[in-house]
User: Fold this.
Amino acid sequence: MTTLTIGKAINAGLRRAMENDPKVLVMGEDVGKLGGVFRVTDQLYKDFGADRVIDTPLAESGIIGTAIGLALRGYRPVCEIQFDGFFFPATNQTFTQLAKLRRRSEGALSIPVVVRIPYGGGIGAVEHHSESPEAYFAHTAGLRVVTVANAVDAYWMIQQAIVSDDPVVFFEPKRRYYDKADIDTEAGLGSAAPMGAARVARPGTDITLLAYGPMVKTALQAAEADPDHDIEVIDLRSLAPVDYDTVEESVRRTGRLVVTHEAPVSHGVGAEIAARITESCFYHLEAPVIRVGAFDTPYPQSRLEEHYLPDLDRVLDGVDRAFAF
Assistant:
């Protein structure tokens, strides 16, 4: 077993994928000699060279557009968008081309591009560095959208994303980059849980608490901090597609569901899950599905982010509201 942080686990997963397939490329702003602003691509440039670890211009549209062309020629590009809020210049290439080419060609073309996006707040950053834009991607048909909450998933899921023939948007919770876990790096990729499967992070019987990415740790803390309720915590892992089978099985047992994420509540991933679970589990629900997220405002200055982001108390309040019915 090897102890790695989430950031180092992604690095190790990238390295393993590049060793296994010479067509895997890493590209983005400062990913080469610098090793990325979070050092996630550290040492890859030294070991694989400038032809496979490519420092690009500061042009996100160019990064994704070039990756699409490379994928059409048989490569498997892994693109890094330096921060979540920097993605938006690449929306045209991502939403109108990357997501649609396989369908448009009736399956004749594969576009195996991975787009890595560090996302979320909690690091005291300046404007445009702490966004949670995952709902945009999950709403776009043709994209697989995943996020990790621990180093084990980080190591395996980045490799699963790279071997996928579909484009994958890979969200990395930047405030959790330094969380550690033990990983069996000698195991084969087939030993890992499927990329699209949710994970029961903590079994429980009284209520289901659903989270993903940076909020999974907070959800687990809430479960431990509540002495009155046996809380089941589910790590969603995949936002598109969603593993509704796992969520529905849990809700049918517990009768209550709270969904939490860092993104604003309105029109978020939690809203879609709440609607779907209300349809499929209506007669099992003892209370409405409760959503806990950030406020419906632009992300604030860093000195206010601790009040903006959902924390332990707000998650526990959501649990209490579910039991108030």
Observations:
- The CA atoms of residues 102 and 109 lie 5 Å apart.
